[in-house]
Design goal:
Helices cover 28% and strands 23% of the residues. The chain contains 9 helices and 15 strands. Strand 2 and strand 3 form a beta hairpin. The longest helix has 15 residues, at 19-33.
Length: 299
């Protein structure tokens, strides 16, 4: 079956004078084109991922690129057979990625950010002596996949990074630090934060894991597992050169990239669970959640 849909991932750090008006125009454009997805608008820029019929996504990209304010915006596109989102959400937020720093400490990637490396440069840099490869995502993302030998912080929110850096790698300010994330947006700020914290040699994977996996020469080499994405796919392959699975079923321990949520709704914790174990024991992260769900059903 041919892929008649497409998923777009994009962002741009560019001042937006009137976020409510900009968001309203985004909503109208997406509704007109039948696009679904999540778009975040802030004074510092836009962060979006949308899905729709291929022709509609072409029209969306053309409309965005026709606006001089969006000059330099890069779209990453994946083919799909259907929508990757159930609906459209356009929200106005203080930041397009949330660090929650004070105004005087905030990071403007247009002023301070790490040097960009293309996929081939990043792959070569990972092999340099003393390199610290830092995953700029949350733990539930890196658990599904990460670069070989990367440091994957045990954090649940991007805003936890400042404290984590100060507690865990403040001693490594002389080492070359290579940052990466899904599509590049978080590392624009993370690398800037590291420079502000006194790290001397900070770089970032331009275009993130998504671009790394699409590079025809690198072919995702040395990325282990899958890349977590924030749509119905959950995970996407990256490495076609030397792929591997890093996740395992919570119950039986067998390799599994099947990422699901605990069936007890108040919990909703993400777990790796193979289909056989779910069939046998249900979709629960613990015996406690299983008991609570059973008790709930009896009420």
């Amino acid at each position: 079956m041919s892929a008649s849909f497409r998923i777009l991932l994009y962002y741009l750090y560019r001042p937006i004078e009137d976020p409510p008006e900009f968001a309203s125009r985004q909503r109208e454009l997406c509704q007109e084109l039948g696009l679904h997805g999540r778009i975040i608008v802030a004074e510092e820029g836009i962060n979006g991922t949308v899905s729709g019929e291929s022709a509609a996504t072409d029209q969306y990209m053309a409309a965005m690129q026709a606006d001089p304010c969006n000059a330099g915006m890069v779209f990453k596109a994946d083919p799909a057979h259907e929508h990757a989102f159930k609906k459209l959400s356009v929200k106005i937020r203080p930041e397009i990625v949330t660090l929650q720093l004070d105004a005087e400490e905030d990071i403007d990637p247009n002023v301070q950010t790490g040097r960009r490396l293309d996929p081939a440069q990043f792959h070569a840099a990972m092999k340099q002596e003393g390199a610290l490869v830092l995953d700029g995502r949350n733990k539930y993302e890196s658990d599904l996949g990460h670069f070989k030998d990367a440091v994957c912080p045990d954090i649940e929110n991007f805003r936890d990074f400042p404290e984590w850096i100060r507690k865990n790698i403040a001693h490594a300010k002389e080492r070359p630090v290579l940052t990466y994330c899904t599509g590049g947006i978080r590392c624009e700020k993370l690398s800037g934060l590291l420079l502000k914290e006194g790290f001397k040699n900070v770089t970032q994977l331009d275009g993130g894991i998504v671009s790394y996996g699409k590079d025809p020469d690198v072919k995702g080499r040395d990325f282990q597992g899958q890349c977590y994405v924030f749509d119905s796919r959950v995970g996407v392959p990256v490495n076609t050169e030397n792929p591997s699975v890093v996740a395992s079923c919570r119950n039986c321990g067998e390799p599994s990239e099947r990422y699901v949520n605990c069936s007890w709704k108040p919990c909703n914790y993400r777990i790796f669970l193979c289909s056989s174990c779910e069939e046998a024991d249900g979709r629960f992260c613990s015996e406690r959640c299983s008991r609570l769900r059973s008790a709930e059903s009896r009420e």
